Amino acid sequence: MLVLNTLSILVQVVFIVFMSLLSMNIIRHFTGYRKMMVLAPALFVNHGGGPMPLLGDKEHAGLTIFLRDEVKKHVNIKELKAIILITAHWEENKVTISSGKHHNLYFDYYGFPPESYKYKYDAPGDPELAEHIKKSLDKAGIESRLDSKRGWDHGVFVPMMLINPEADIPIIQISVLSNQDPEQHYKLGQALYEFRKEGIAIFGSGMSYHNMREFMYSRHQNTVVNKEFDDFLNEVCTSESEEKRRKGLISWRQQRGASDAHPPRAAEHFMPLIVVAGAGGSAPGKRIFNWDMSGTFRLSAFIWKDK
């Protein structure tokens, strides 16, 4: 009788342990699945003028604070597997993808202090991911090529030195197209959307307003010169309708103030925003930065996250 009681107790203990382990595995399975299903973000940021955000320039103070302190409130950098970064400072006739294990910095600015040519940013590249991106673009009918040699320009390293100074997340730099065709850039973003499901963020680095002549001659007007165009950007980027966003950005040249914000044939800084919006998926974007540089030029940043 004692043996039977002991066996019965053992069976109950084994059953309880088994059910506990089973429950833990089920919970682990579903929480892990949920983690996999959370999209990495698509983010557009303004990178400012040359290395000025890194040099402590007073007129870039608001932008520097945003890149250094505010982006991390919207993006958990340490959860990202990699960052695909579209830079305004690389124009090619077909989409070009950085594919080296490591890329030196390309100091594509002139006339700044000597220390601004000594920066280091040693984040790794990812040749395997670069090849995967190329195959995905080929499948989407988008011509592309790999480039293992070109360095990371300041559209990459200036914002990233502030956003993630640890430089421990792999980066793939991608060019914009020299034709500045908005529909092609939006389609590029749509093709890149799938990578967000793999924990890979899509970053666009440009400027929501970029008129070099006005930067030189129209600062400190104490009035915002591009309010109407910035309002348009906010309306389309935060729209609940993905189709409204797409149509609005494809026809952006027809909007009031567009040519003042980005002069004809000089809209390379606007193209990364269109790519990121294309990668936004069905969720509406959110404006997470709205600041007047020199009290005159309104800059906006947008993010698209999981619904």
Q: Tell me the series of helices and strands, N- to C-terminal.
A: HEHEEHEHEHEHHHHHEE
Q: What's the average pLDDT?
A: 91
Low-pLDDT regions: 26-36
Task: Specify the number of helices.
Answer: 10
Largest sheet: 6 strands, mixed
Short overview:
With 307 residues, this protein is α/β, with parallel strands linked by helices. It is built from ten helices and eight strands. It has a six-stranded mixed β-sheet with strand order 5-2-6-1-8-7, sandwiched between helices. It has a two-stranded parallel ribbon with strand order 3-4.
Describe the structure.
This is Extradiol ring-cleavage dioxygenase class III enzyme subunit B domain-containing protein. It holds the Pfam family LigB. GO terms for molecular function: ferrous iron binding; oxidoreductase activity, acting on single donors with incorporation of molecular oxygen, incorporation of two atoms of oxygen; zinc ion binding. α2 packs across α4 and α7 runs antiparallel to α8. The strands form two sheets. The chain has a six-stranded mixed beta sheet with strand order 5-2-6-1-8-7, with helices on both faces. A two-stranded parallel ribbon has the order 3-4. The radius of gyration is 23 Å and the shape is globular. By secondary structure, the chain is of the alpha/beta class. It is built from ten helices and eight strands.
